[in-house]
From TrEMBL:
This is site-specific DNA-methyltransferase (adenine-specific). Keywords: Methyltransferase, Transferase. It catalyses: a 2'-deoxyadenosine in DNA + S-adenosyl-L-methionine = an N(6)-methyl-2'-deoxyadenosine in DNA + S-adenosyl-L-homocysteine + H(+). Residues 529-554 are annotated as: Disordered. It comes from Roseicella aquatilis. Residues 7-221 form the MmeI-like N-terminal domain. It comes from the Bacteria. It holds the Pfam family MmeI_TRD. GO terms for molecular function: site-specific DNA-methyltransferase (adenine-specific) activity. It is an enzyme of class 2 (transferase). Residues 233-305 form the MmeI-like helicase spacer domain.
Length: 1148
C-alpha cells in the first residue's frame, strides 16, 4: 500500500545545502501531502499565493529596494526558506569543533542563530507588505528537508510573532508529519489560519462549562425565601470542585477519571459525598494517601483546600440532582477552558444578579491582547531582541558561554518582572499577560538550550520560571478575588502541561502568594460613618423603591425607602504595590454618575483625595492619573509603562484634561500607543459603549496611533476590527497633527452657545390637549409659560409635538394664584419625585426646572429665532428654531438669528474642526458637540460684507429647503436626508429606500447647496476649498492663536456685539469689517532689513489668511505703511506668489 507521507520523508530527509534549488519542489511536495493546492504560477511581481513574491522595502531616507518572499499566501503566512547541513558530514569534512561553529550545521548554536535571523527576515518581509494586505497571522521558517519553525501573531499588529502552538510544538521535524494532528495544523495554516487562534477555540467550551456552574450555584443557594447556603460558601465550594475537575483533566490526580468516579460512587447514597470529597480535599491540601481515592495524591496546598483561608474544609452537602450536575460537569474536558474569560463567567455564575446574562459579559481575549501587547510585551520583546543580538555577537566571536550568560540573565530578569492590575476583576488581563510572557520565556529557554544544552529544561524543572506570583491585583469585589487567583493558577498549569507533557510541576502544586489583594484601589480609610447635614442630622437618600400614587396612579418614589449616606473617615490614596507594568480595564462610571453609583460620601472623599482630577471626570480617570504618577515617580521610575481601557469619553474635555495635564507635567508622560475609538463587546455582540485604549510611558516622545478602518461581526459576538497605524506625537485628545487642546476660548463667541434646559421631572411635559385643559389659550399670560418643546430626537427624526410647562421667574405662590390648574398638575406629577432629590435647590424649587440655564435664556431673549444643533448625533446639522421653542438639554442653542453664523457653522470647515475637537459617545460612536471644546474657541472668518451676504443667502436657502421637504413629506427626517447625502458623497449605490428619500427630499439639491456654502465659507477665510481636513484643523488652530493675541490687545471680533458688549464703544467693538489701527499688533516681529527676506516674511504672513496692506503692516515692527506695502503685495501677486481676494486683501 502506498505511503505518501513516508515517501515524502524518505525523499527529503537528510537533503542539505541546496536551498535555492530545493525549496520550491520541497514545498510543492509538502502541499501535496497536506492536501492544499500548490502556489500559483508567477504573473508579474505581485500575487496572493506565489513563490518569489516581490515587496518594496523603504529605507529611512526614502530609498527603496525590492525584496522577495520565498513563499507568500495573503492572509495566511510568510515563509522564509533555508537549508542547513547535516552534522556527520560536516564533522567528517571539517572536524567536530569546526562543524559545531559553522552556522549551517543543524542543531548547532550557529544554526539556531541562523534560524532566528531567518525569522527576523520573514518578519521584515511581513512589514514590507502593502497595508491593504494586512499582517499575515503566521511566519514560517523552513529548513528544507529538516524542519519548519512556526510562529503566530493573531493580534493583527505584526509585532509579536511567538512560537506556535508553544515551545514544545513550534518546530516541526519531517518525521512529525506522520502525525495527523500536525498535518491538520499545517493544512489550517494554509486554508483558515485564524481558526487556530486559541482564544476562538476555547470560548465555546468555556461558555458551555459555565452553564453547569450557574445551575449548580442556583441549586446550592436555594430560593430566596428558603436559602440553603450562603453565597460565599457556595463560591468556595464550586471553586474547589472546579479545580478538582481541572486537576483530573490535566493529570494531576491519580487517573483521568478519579474525581468523576468518586462522584459516581456517591450516586447510591449522596450523603457519602461530604466525607468522601472532604477526605480528598484534605489529602490534596497536605499531600499523601487519600482513602477516598485509595491512591497517593500530590500536595496542592496554596490555600485553596486549606480550612480558614477560603472557608471551611468540608464540602457542602448535595442532593441527587446536584450530584448529577457535578458528575456531568466533571465529564467535560476542563483542560481546554479559556482562563481569559472563564473567570468572568465563573463570577457571573456565582452572582445571582448576573446569572440571567451568563456568558453575555466578558472581555474578549483579542481585546485584552490588543492592550497587553503594546503595554507589556512590546518593551519586553524589544529588550529580548537586543539580548539576542548581543548573544549572537558573542557566539560569532567564539564566546558561546558569554552568549549563554546574557540569555540566562534575561531569563532571570523576565522571572522578576511584576505586572499590576489595580482593578483586576477576575484576573483576565493578568492571565493573558502571564501567557504571553510564558510564550516569550519559551523562546528564551529555547535559545538557552541551544547555547547551553539542557540548561533551559533544568531551569524549568527547578521552578525558575514565570509564574503567578509576578502578577499582582487589587479588587474591590470579594467574590472576584479568589476567582482571580484560581484563574492565574489554571492558566499557569495549562501552560506547564502544554510545554512539559505529562510531567507534574514541583510540589506544592499551588502556592499561596496572596498576590491578589482585596480592597479599594483608590481610597483607603479607617471607617465609614453617617454623613450629617448642617443641623447634625444623618443624611439619607432615596433607596430606589417606588409606590403607586393614590391620585395619579403613576409610580412615584416611596418616601419611606431611605438609605443612610455613609462618609469615609480618614480617606487617603491607596498605596499600590510596585510593578514594572500596569495594565487594566478600569470601571466604566461616568463623572455625572459618580454620586449615584458610589454614594455622596464616597464621591466627595474621592474628589477631596484626588484634587487634580476634575470632579466631572469619569471614575477611570482617577486610576489613569494615579498610574501616570507611578510612571513618573522617582529618578528612574519602577513602572515603565501603563496601559488602560477606558470609555472613549477620555477624549472629552474633563477626562482629556487629566491626560493633558499629565503630558505637560514635570516630569511628563507621553502616549506610546493609543486607539481613540474601538468597539466594545459583551460576548453576544457590540455593547452600548465605545472604548479607547491608551498606553503611557515616562518622558516626552512619540507613539503609535491605531485608527479603526473596518468593523465586522465575528464569532462569539466579538467584532473583527482592522486598523491603520500612524506614528508621531499623540495629543491628549488621542490625535496626531495640530493639537486642538492648545486652542483657547474666544471672547468673540462668549455667552452665545449653551445646552438647553434640564427638566428633572417628566411631569413638566404635556401634550397640546393637556395644555389646553390646563388653560392654554384661555388663561391670560399662560402662553409665556407653556411652550413647544424639542429634544434631540424630535429634531433629528420627527417631533412628538410635546409642550413644556416652564415657570421660570415665578414664585410658588404666584403659580398657585395665577395658574391653579398648572400648579396642581406640577404638584401631583413633579413634586413627589423632587421631594426625594438630593439637591436642596431641586427639592425646594420643585415647580422650576432642575437646571434653568439662565445663559441660554439670556442669549435667545428678544430674538425671533435661534440656531440649534443636537449635542450627540451622527450628522452635524444646524437649523433655525422659532424663539418660542424651549430646547432640551440635548440640544445646543446658539443665540444668533444671523444666517451668516448658521452658514459658517454648517460649513465643511467648521465640521472638520468639530470632528477634531469633539468627544464621541455611544455604540453608534456619534460625535458630541461640546460647546466649550468646539464653539467657544472657533474663529469665525473676517468676511467682507459681500461675503457675509453670500453666505447668509445660501444658508437661508439651505434651511428653507430642508424644512420645506420635511413639511411636505411626512416620512422624511433630517437623519434620513443626511444618511442619503453621506451615501452619495461616498459614491455608494443607493438602495430602493434611499432612492425614495433622495427623490422626495431632493437630496441632490441639498448637496449642491452644501457645496456652494462650503466654497463661499472657504473663500471668506481666504483658504483653498480643497484643503484636507487635517490642513483645515491646523489653520483653525493657528487662527485661534492669532485671535487670542488680538483679544489680549483689546480687539474683539464680536459675533453679536449689541448683546455681548453693549457697553463698549464702536471704536473698541470691532466686528468683522471694522478697520484696525496703524500700530503694530502685540506679538509683532521685527521687519527684516534686506529686501529678499522682507518678501519671504511677507509671503509667510499671507499663508495665515487674507490680509490687506494695513493688516500685514501691523504684524511687523518697522514695516512700511500704506502705498509702499501695497506695492510689495502687488509685486507678489504679479509673480504668482500671492493672489488678490478682493477689497485690497491678498492671500498666499
Amino acid at each position: 500500500m502506498r505511503d505518501p507521507i513516508g515517501s515524502f520523508i524518505a525523499r527529503w530527509d537528510g537533503t542539505e545545502q541546496a536551498e535555492r534549488a530545493n525549496y520550491i519542489p520541497f514545498l510543492n511536495d509538502l502541499c501535496t501531502i497536506l492536501g492544499v493546492p500548490p502556489p500559483d504560477p508567477a504573473a508579474g511581481p505581485l500575487g496572493d499565493y506565489r513563490y518569489e513574491r516581490g515587496v518594496t522595502h523603504r529605507e529611512a531616507d526614502g530609498a527603496t529596494t525590492t525584496r522577495r518572499i520565498d513563499l507568500y499566501k495573503r492572509g495566511c503566512f510568510v515563509l522564509e526558506a533555508k537549508q542547513g547541513a547535516n552534522a556527520p558530514r560536516q564533522g567528517a569534512l571539517f572536524g567536530a569543533g569546526e562543524a559545531e561553529r559553522r552556522a549551517n550545521v543543524r542543531r548547532s548554536p550557529g544554526w539556531a542563530q541562523a534560524m532566528l535571523k531567518a525569522k527576523g527576515q520573514a518578519e521584515g518581509y511581513a512589514r514590507d507588505l502593502p497595508a491593504a494586505e494586512g499582517w499575515p497571522p503566521f511566519v514560517i521558517v523552513c529548513d528544507v528537508g529538516f524542519c519548519l519553525d512556526v510562529y503566530a501573531d493573531f493580534s493583527g499588529t505584526g509585532k509579536h510573532y511567538a512560537q506556535f502552538p508553544d515551545r514544545e510544538g513550534f518546530r516541526i521535524y519531517l518525521p512529525d508529519l506522520r502525525r495527523p494532528e500536525v498535518r491538520d495544523r499545517l493544512h489550517t495554516i494554509w486554508t483558515d489560519p485564524m481558526a487556530l487562534d486559541p482564544s476562538r477555540q476555547r470560548v465555546r467550551v468555556t461558555r458551555d462549562i459555565a452553564e453547569y456552574l450557574a445551575r449548580l450555584a442556583r441549586a446550592l443557594e436555594g430560593p430566596k425565601d428558603k436559602p440553603r447556603h450562603a453565597p460565599q460558601h457556595v463560591a468556595t465550594f464550586l471553586m474547589r470542585c472546579i479545580f478538582s475537575m481541572f486537576a483530573q483533566s490535566v493529570g494531576l490526580l491519580p487517573s483521568g477519571t478519579a474525581f468523576t468516579e468518586l462522584l459516581e460512587d456517591c450516586r447510591k447514597n449522596p450523603k457519602n459525598f461530604v466525607p468522601l470529597v472532604g477526605d480528598l480535599w484534605r489529602s490534596m491540601n497536605t499531600g499523601g494517601f487519600s482513602p477516598a481515592l485509595r491512591a497517593m495524591v500530590l500536595r496542592f496546598n496554596g490555600g485553596l483546600f486549606a480550612p480558614g483561608v477560603h472557608g471551611a474544609a468540608e464540602p457542602l452537602p448535595v442532593d441527587g440532582d446536584m450530584l448529577e450536575l457535578l458528575i456531568q460537569a466533571s465529564r467535560r474536558d476542563w483542560a481546554d477552558v479559556e482562563p481569559a474569560i472563564f473567570g468572568t463567567l465563573l463570577e457571573n455564575a456565582l452572582d445571582p444578579k448576573q446569572r440571567g446574562e451568563l456568558g453575555a459579559h466578558f472581555t474578549p481575549r483579542a481585546f485584552v491582547e490588543r492592550l497587553v501587547l503594546p503595554t507589556v510585551m512590546e518593551p519586553l520583546r524589544a529588550e529580548w531582541d537586543g539580548v539576542k543580538a548581543a548573544a549572537v555577537l558573542k557566539v560569532e566571536g567564539g564566546d558561546r558561554a558569554g552568549g549563554a550568560a546574557l540569555v540566562r540573565a534575561f531569563h532571570a530578569r523576565l522571572c522578576a518582572v511584576r505586572v499590576l492590575d489595580p482593578a483586576c476583576g477576575t484576573g483576565n488581563f493578568l492571565y493573558v499577560t502571564l501567557e504571553l510572557m510564558k510564550r516569550l520565556e519559551g523562546e528564551v529557554l529555547d535559545l538557552l538550550a541551544d547555547l547551553a544544552p539542557g540548561e533551559g529544561d533544568r531551569l524549568d524543572v527547578a521552578g525558575a520560571s514565570v509564574d503567578p506570583h509576578q502578577f499582582l491585583g487589587i479588587e474591590k469585589n470579594p467574590r472576584a478575588v479568589p476567582v482571580a487567583e484560581l484563574v492565574l493558577w489554571i492558566g499557569h498549569l495549562q501552560w506547564h502541561f502544554r510545554t512539559r507533557g505529562s510531567a507534574p510541576p514541583a510540589e506544592p502544586i499551588l502556592r499561596d502568594f496572596r498576590n491578589i489583594r482585596e480592597g479599594d484601589a483608590l481610597l483607603t480609610y479607617n471607617r465609614e460613618e453617617p454623613d450629617r447635614d448642617a443641623k447634625g442630622d444623618p443624611v439619607t437618600r432615596w433607596g430606589g423603591r417606588t409606590k403607586v400614587h393614590p391620585i395619579t396612579g403613576e409610580n412615584v418614589p416611596d418616601e419611606t425607602d431611605r438609605v443612610l449616606v455613609l462618609r469615609p473617615v480618614g480617606a487617603k490614596p491607596t498605596q499600590w504595590p510596585e510593578a514594572e507594568f500596569i495594565v487594566s480595564n478600569f470601571p466604566f462610571v461616568a463623572g455625572k454618575d459618580l454620586r449615584a453609583e458610589l454614594g455622596d460620601g464616597y464621591a466627595e472623599a474621592l474628589w477631596a483625595t484626588y484634587p487634580k482630577v476634575p470632579a466631572s471626570a469619569d471614575l477611570a480617570m482617577h486610576f489613569w492619573w494615579k498610574s501616570a504618577q507611578a510612571v513618573t515617580k522617582g529618578k528612574v521610575p519602577v513602572t515603565r509603562r501603563a496601559g488602560f481601557i477606558t470609555s472613549n469619553s477620555i477624549r472629552q474635555v474633563f477626562c482629556r484634561r487629566v491626560v493633558g495635564d499629565s503630558m505637560e507635567a514635570k516630569p511628563p508622560v507621553h502616549l506610546a500607543f493609543a486607539i481613540p475609538d474601538h468597539p466594545w463587546a459583551d460576548g453576544h455582540g457590540a455593547a452600548a459603549v465605545r472604548i479607547s485604549m491608551t498606553v503611557i510611558e515616562s518622558g516626552p516622545g512619540e507613539g503609535n496611533l491605531a485608527m479603526v478602518t473596518s468593523e465586522a461581526a465575528g464569532a462569539d459576538g466579538v467584532p473583527v476590527v482592522t486598523f491603520t497605524t500612524m506614528q508621531g506625537r499623540i495629543n491628549a485628545d488621542l490625535s496626531l497633527g495640530a493639537d486642538v487642546k492648545t486652542t483657547k476660548p474666544l471672547r468673540a463667541n462668549e455667552r452665545l452657545a449653551s445646552p438647553g434646559v434640564k427638566l428633572h421631572g417628566a411631569g413638566f411635559l404635556v401634550t397640546p390637549q393637556q395644555a389646553k385643559a390646563l388653560g392654554l389659550g384661555s388663561v391670560p399670560g399662560l402662553e409665556a409659560h407653556i411652550r413647544p418643546y424639542l429634544n434631540g430626537r424630535d429634531l433629528q427624526q420627527r417631533s412628538r409635538g410635546l409642550m413644556v410647562i416652564d415657570l421660570d421667574g415665578l414664585r410658588e405662590d404666584e403659580v398657585r394664584q395665577r395658574f391653579p390648574a398648572v400648579y396642581q398638575h406640577v404638584l401631583l406629577h413633579v413634586k413627589p419625585e423632587r421631594d426625594l432629590n438630593n439637591e436642596a435647590y431641586r427639592r425646594e424649587n420643585w415647580w422650576l426646572f432642575g437646571r434653568n440655564n439662565a445663559v441660554m435664556r439670556a442669549a435667545v431673549r428678544g430674538l425671533r429665532r435661534f440656531i440649534a444643533t443636537v449635542e450627540t448625533a451622527k450628522h452635524r446639522v444646524f437649523v433655525f428654531l422659532p424663539a418660542e421653542v424651549r430646547p432640551d438639554n440635548m440640544l445646543i442653542a446658539i443665540g444668533s438669528d444671523d444666517a451668516f453664523v448658521l452658514g459658517v457653522l454648517q460649513s465643511r470647515i467648521h465640521e472638520a474642526w468639530f470632528l477634531a475637537a469633539c468627544g464621541w459617545l455611544g455604540v453608534g460612536n456619534d460625535p458630541r458637540y461640546n460647546k466649550t471644546q468646539v464653539f467657544d474657541p472657533f474663529p469665525f472668518p473676517n468676511a467682507t460684507a459681500v461675503q457675509r451676504a453670500e453666505i447668509a443667502t445660501i444658508a437661508e436657502e439651505l434651511d428653507a429647503h430642508r424644512k420645506a421637504r420635511l413639511a411636505t413629506q411626512p416620512h422624511l427626517s433630517l437623519t434620513g436626508l443626511y444618511n442619503v447625502l453621506a451615501a452619495i458623497r461616498a459614491g455608494k449605490p443607493l438602495s430602493a429606500a434611499e432612492k425614495d428619500v433622495h427623490d422626495a427630499g431632493q437630496v441632490s439639491i441639498l448637496r449642491a447647496l452644501h457645496d456652494r456654502l462650503d466654497a463661499a465659507v472657504a473663500a471668506s477665510y481666504g483658504w483653498p476649498a480643497d484643503l484636507s481636513d487635517a490642513a483645515v484643523v491646523a489653520r483653525v488652530v493657528a487662527l485661534n492663536a492669532e485671535r487670542v493675541k488680538e483679544e489680549a490687545a483689546g480687539t474683539v471680533r464680536w459675533l453679536r456685539p449689541e448683546f455681548q458688549a453693549p457697553e463698549e464703544t464702536r471704536r473698541k467693538a470691532v466686528q468683522t469689517e471694522m478697520a484696525v489701527g496703524e500700530t503694530a499688533a502685540p506679538g509683532a516681529v521685527a521687519w527684516p532689513k534686506d529686501v529678499p527676506s522682507q518678501f519671504i516674511a511677507l509671503r509667510s504672513a499671507l499663508t495665515r489668511g487674507p490680509a490687506s496692506a494695513q493688516d500685514v503692516s501691523r504684524r511687523f515692527k518697522g514695516a512700511p505703511r500704506g502705498a509702499k506695502m501695497a506695492e510689495m503685495l502687488a509685486t507678489l501677486a504679479a509673480l504668482g506668489q500671492a493672489r488678490p481676494v478682493g477689497n485690497g486683501r491678498y492671500v498666499a
